[in-house]
Specification:
Elements lengths: L9 E9 L8 H11 L2 E10 L10 H14 L3 E4 L5 H11 L2 E3 L1 H12 L3 H16 L22 H39 L4 E6 L5 H9 L16 E6 L5 E6 L9 H6 L1 H8 L3 E7 L5 H14 L7 E6 L9 E4 L5 E5 L8 H11 L4 E8 L4 H10 E8 L5 E8 H5 L4
Parallel strand pairs: 1-2, 1-3, 3-4, 5-7, 5-8, 8-9, 9-11
Antiparallel strand pairs: 6-7, 10-11, 12-14, 13-14
Helix pairs in contact: 1-4, 4-5, 5-6
């Protein structure tokens, strides 16, 4: 059983192109992931195969190449840009006499470092435990040989069963807590729905600039860093568009190529803010040479969580790096489809707010109305379907209300 220290070490990166798979491994992104986890990449070993080797994912020649790299660079860690099964991971650790971490474990480790909120920490722990439950045998290989006969059976099977039972119990506890948080989140959504406040969700590839844009248009102070997965916890802020329409903006976790399914499942409650939004602001790093592939990867995850049918406004961020001019591009239906802006400098952010006014399917009225004492039914209607900004009772018993209400409800009233 290999010791697994938590500190970052010198790491050998391994990325193999599988000819039968459509997705080409992104070496640069994998290197950024390794750095984000705290590792120090020494060298990247690449290759190609028709299919993965069932025993060790790679062939004996690549194993020898990795062994030489480990010896040359005094590396303590080997990172694979692939999902390894438990057998492959165990065999590789035996052959290399070194810790072997696959892509899923690497991303889980980054999420564990970055989670800040109570819900985020629970979601990450849930994903880690589900991933670990299928790999317990890696930690008990020294007990896997069992002798038969009464009194001759070793503790290996008992220990594995104990660990699995403890993990299953912890998973059950976490899921119960997340269900409670989910109910609270649902109640908040219902309150926003009653107030007829639309929700717009920021989505996009990790490090595309979502949080910077979020801070720019909401005057919030969400943590921003030039690193992958800087944001894990969904943040909501209320703003008003230039036409006084209230709006909830949600900043969500960034996506990445081959995002682990355990993470998508664990963060499903958080991603509901995306799935139930009325419009998605898809933030793209326009300076990224792989931006089209990034867009496709985000759309793939959106489809997986059931958000692919929601209208999108694609925001090409970081135009300051390309000397592009801020602008709105419309589709054939004259709806705003693409916006070019810079969240860092603020250029074009006003165009995004204008596009949201045009794109949101609902229109709102911002009115100040005086209601007579005899018309309390109308006042009750405003409280049920509108957002009350200010309410003042006058000496004659009438009520002066400043409200925001959806236009279709306002037009249906008899005043």
């Amino acid at each position: 059983m290999l010791e697994r220290p938590r500190a970052g070490e010198q790491a050998i990166l391994v990325s193999i192109r599988l000819k039968r798979e459509a997705d080409v491994p992104d070496i640069q992104e994998f290197s950024h992931l390794a750095t984000a986890a705290g590792a120090i990449p020494c060298v990247t070993i690449e290759g190609s195969r028709e299919t993965p080797d069932s025993r060790s994912f790679i062939g004996s020649g690549k194993i020898e190449e990795i062994q030489q790299a480990i010896e040359t660079h005094q590396a303590q860690l080997v990172l694979f840009n692939h999902r390894l099964n438990p057998v492959q991971s165990r065999n590789l650790e035996k052959e290399l006499n070194c810790r072997v971490i696959d892509r899923t474990e690497l991303i889980l480790d980054i999420f564990a470092q970055r989670a800040r909120s109570f819900e985020g920490k629970l979601q990450v722990e849930l994903a880690q435990l589900k991933h670990l439950s299928s790999r317990l045998i890696r930690g008990w290989t020294h007990l896997e040989r069992q002798r038969g006969g009464i009194g001759m059976r070793g503790p290996g099977e008992t220990q594995l069963e104990t660990d699995r039972r403890l993990i299953a119990k912890r998973i059950e506890q976490i899921e119960a807590r997340l269900e409670k948080v989910s109910r609270q989140r649902t109640q908040s959504r219902r309150a926003r729905s009653r107030a007829e406040i639309p929700v717009v969700s920021l989505v996009g590839y990790t490090n595309a600039g979502k949080s910077t844009l979020f801070n720019r248009i909401t005057n919030a102070e969400v943590f921003v860093a030039n690193q992958l997965f800087a944001t894990l916890d969904t943040t909501l802020r209320r703003i008003e568009l230039p036409n006084k329409t209230p709006l909830i903006i949600a900043d969500t976790v960034g996506f990445v190529q081959q995002l682990p399914h355990d993470l998508v499942a664990a963060f499903r409650g958080t991603l509901d803010e995306t799935r139930l939004a009325e419009v998605l602001i898809h933030v793209v790093d326009c300076a990224d040479p792989e931006r089209q592939q990034r867009i496709e990867q985000v759309d793939k995850v959106l489809k997986e969580i059931g958000a692919n049918e929601i209208p999108q406004i694609v925001v090409y961020n970081k135009i300051d790096q390309l000397n592009e001019t801020p602008r709105i591009e419309y589709d054939e239906s004259n709806f705003p489809q693409r916006i070019w802006l810079s969240a860092v400098t603020g250029e074009g952010c006003d165009l995004l707010l204008q596009a949201l006014i045009e794109r949101l399917p609902r229109q709102f009225e911002h009115r100040t109305i005086t209601i007579s004492p005899q018309n309390q039914k109308l006042r009750a209607h405003f409280h049920e379907f509108g957002q009350i900004l200010k309410e003042t009772f006058l000496d004659d018993g009438s009520c002066e209300m400043e409200i925001i209400i959806e236009t279709r409800y306002f037009n249906s009233l008899e005043m």
